[in-house]
Design a protein that fits this description.
mainly alpha, 2 domains, 3-stranded antiparallel beta sheet, 61% helix, Ribonuclease iii, N-terminal Endonuclease Domain, Chain A, 10% strand, Double Stranded RNA Binding Domain
Length: 236
Amino acid sequence: MQSDCKNIDEFLNINGFQNYDKNLVITALTHSSYVNDGRGSYFECYERLEFLGDAVLKLITSEYLYKTFTDSNEGNLTKIRSVIVSDEILAQIALKIGLSAFIRLSEAEEKDGGREKQSILACAMEALFGAIYLSGGYKEVESFVIKHMNKLIDDLNNNRSVYNAKAVLQEYTQAESKVVPEYKTVKETGKANNKTFFVEVRYNGQMLGQGEGKTKRAAQQEAAFAACKKLKLIEE
C-alpha cells in the first residue's frame, strides 16, 4: 500500500508521533537487505530496534490488559496478548497506516514483493516502536498502540470462546487420534491492504468447519469455532 503522505515527517505526525529522532526512525524502516546491498552496516538496519520494540509492545499490551480485564487470569491474558502482538496484526496495522511506502529495501527484495511481506511489515512496525520509545518516550508509543488495538482487544475479550476454539479443537483431535486439524485457505478476496480470507478446517479427511476473516488467524478461529460447535465441544 502506498502512503498518501509526501514525506516521513508528515507520515509520523499524522499518526500521532510528535517527538522522534528522524535518524532512528529511518534505521527502524531499513531492512537488512538494504544494508547488505553495500549501503551501510548491520547497525543501520532495523533488527536491533525491532528487538527493543517487541519488548515495548508487549509491556504496553500487558499493562493495558492487566488494568482493563481485572477478572481475567494469566492464561486468558496471555492468549489475548499473543494475538495482539502477532505478525498478522502488526502487518495489518502497518498496511493500514501506509508504513510500507517508507521501508527501505534492496532492489532484489523490492522485486520479490518485500514491501507487502507480513514478516517485514511486522518487524518494521516493532522497530518503529523501538525508535519512538528511545526518542519520544513510553507514552508516545503507548498512545499509538492503544489507539489502534483497543477495539481488537475488546473484541478478543468479548469473544473468548471464538479465539480459544483452535486450542479446544486441537486438544480434542490429539486426544482422539494424536492428529492435529489442518487449516486451508481456500480463497482470498480484496486488495492487499483490505483482504478477506476464507478457510476450511479438516480432520481425518473430513471438513469440519469454515470461516472468514480479515486475517488468516481470524478466519482459522472462525473455522475452528464452527468445528467445535459441530462436535459439541463448546457452546455458542
